[in-house]
Amino acid sequence: MSDVLARLVAELEAGTIRVVDLTQPLGPDTVVIDLPPMFAPSNGVTIEQISRYDEAGPGWYWNNLSFGEHTGTHFDAPRHWITGREEEAGTTDTIPVRRFVGPACVIDIEAQVEVDADFLLTPEQLELWEETHGRVPGDAWVLLRTGWSRRSGKEAFLNVGEDGPHSPGFHPDTSYMLAHDRGVLGVGVETVGTDAGQAGAFEPPFPNHAVMHGAGKFGLASLCNLDQLPATGAVVIAAPLKIVDGSGSPLRVIALAPA
Fold first, then answer.
1. Residue 15: what pLDDT?
2. How far apart are CA 119 and CA 171, in angstroms?
3. From CA 225, how far away is CA 19, in angstroms rounded?
4. What's the mean per-residue pLDDT of the chain?
5. Which residues have a catalytic role annotated?
6. What is the pLDDT, as a whole number, of residue 2?
7. What is the pTM of this model?
8. If phi over 0 gives left and psi between -120 and 50 gives alpha, with beta otherwise, what is residue 15?
9. What are phi and psi for residue 228, nearest 5 degrees?
């Protein structure tokens, strides 16, 4: 074992490195994004028991699962969006596994979101964050801490009004800056999707999806426990299921963080 890996194991055993779960539970109550009626909806989670130590299987318990690829805490691959459809390694089975692991930059906008549910992180605010914490490095995960994961129930989590959903996200120019000027792996959010709630009316529509996936970058949605991570210094591991030609996948996102 290399010295670096030996030190990692030792620090995990000593508790000087914490493993933080950034994943929401996945079950029948998991909230799924609502799309306008003209678009096909994604199914929620169905768990069908096959056997549980009974006549159908006396010594084992297992289930059949059914859900959309983009359900719960999930991964968006480049080919999820039309702008990324030509990406050579753009599906969950073709992305190099090295690209699932990277340093985390956690940008805290909880206070702003408490005042304005539609708050967007602008390039100027990103640069202010960088003045304190350093420039966002290439191949980093940029995670937007909003406190949104503490909302319970579909109504509060989707926060839909007469004019559509309201939730925070990235300004289109910020998405472009992160994808092209900073060269990040991707972005992560606590909301149901990586675009702000009102992003369907932006130009282009859903710009974070369009920009990120068009640049071969990734998205993580419905994260939680971002308040347990430092602004910098943690490492995120976000590996989707290896679905053949998959546009995305539920996943277990974990972070290694200093104690």
1. 96
2. 9
3. 11
4. 97
5. 80
6. 83
7. 0.97
8. left
9. -90, 0
Using 50, 70 and 90 to split pLDDT, how confident is the model at 37?
Answer: confident
Helix (H, G, I), strand (E, B) or coil at 153: coil
Residue type, 182: R
**Nearest alpha carbon to residue 25 among 62, 60, 67:** 67
Query: What integer pLDDT is reported at residue 223 of this predicted model?
Result: 98
204: preceding bond cis by omega (within 30 degrees): yes
**Cα–Cα separations (whole angstroms), residue 102 to 83, 141, 241:** 24, 6, 18
Mean pLDDT of 61-76: 98
Taken as a whole, the chain contains a residue count of 259
34: its two tokens:
């609502």
How far apart are the C-alpha atoms of 125 and 122, rounded to whole Å?
Answer: 5
Radius of gyration of the chain (CA): 19
List the end-to-end C-alpha distance of the chain, in Å, as a whole number. 24
